Amino acid sequence: MRELRADDPRRIGRYRVIGRLGAGGMGEVFLARSRSGRSVAVKVVSRAEAADPGFRARFAREVRAARQVAGPGTVPVVDADPDAELPWYASDYIPGPSLAAAVDEHGPLPMSSVWRLAADLAGTLEEIHQQGLVHRDIKPPNLLLSASGPRLIDFGIARASATQGLTVTGARLGTVGYMSPEQWAGQRVTPASDLYSYGLLLYFAATGQDPRPGVALRLEGLHPELARLISACQAERPEDRPGAAEAHAWARRLDTTADSWLPDSVLTAIARTSERLLNLAAELDEEEPFTEPGSGDGGRRPRGGLWSRTTRAAGGWWRTPTSLDTPLPPGAPG
């Protein structure tokens, strides 16, 4: 998390903004709190994008999609105003790193964690696909690791598979390295496309290596069943890949984790992030008590050396990344 800039909002809707979580060409994501103390990640569209009616429509669709698939494997959208001058939505803040950040910081996940991730993520994809949606951007930065399980974020380019489940001909919506062959070709995208990306994400989790387009995965040395699952998901023809339900059942058979599914190093990082969030909230309340919008506080910036103290203390643990490089993330809300 980073300090607020002079021109950053101090309030968004009924939330007090306390820090920056991420930024990109499409907008910015802020850490904020409600009066009741709920911590949320608020995603705000940039002024340039807000002037584009098509972009506003896509943003509204993202909000609808994220609300449609709310479940234990996603991040709930708790508030939104897609019609605001700068459209925004708020989702629960998850004090855990993305899979990308965790692997970068701590190395590949142990096999027990990979199987839990594989089972839970496949179950989440099963729910999403049952709702008639295709995520279309399954990748390590879009999977947050919470103490209770992995959380899929960024429904910015999700599409309804039951109605129009197509990309525009020739369009490539997704992330290089994790896109299915049909996405690369700008062809019809189906739930099977998500399973292709799912297999590549499991490869990254187990090896720490990003897949490269056109380069065969090196599956030697992986658990034989994991290698089989990844290989099945990489079938060239979508109809030859397992469905989410099959992948879920496959991974559940090998998931031996109980409540604690992450390695101690990642759990320690999550605990430190949670602790520092509580400390930050307490310091903010002490420096500037929460007041409702319009009560005369004017959305002032916190006074004194609070930010330098808190940000320095938090160090590198405030690293929950948000992807904003593809059309629209939630998540932290990407």
TrEMBL record:
Keywords: ATP-binding, Kinase, Nucleotide-binding, Serine/threonine-protein kinase, Transferase. InterPro entries: Kinase-like_dom_sf, Prot_kinase_dom, Protein_kinase_ATP_BS, Ser/Thr_kinase_AS. Pfam families: Pkinase. Residues 15-251 form the Protein kinase domain. Residues 283-334 are annotated as: Disordered. GO terms for molecular function: ATP binding; protein serine/threonine kinase activity. ATP binds at residue 43. This is Serine/threonine protein kinase. It comes from Streptomyces triticirhizae. The lineage of its organism: Bacteria, Bacillati, Actinomycetota, Actinomycetes, Kitasatosporales.
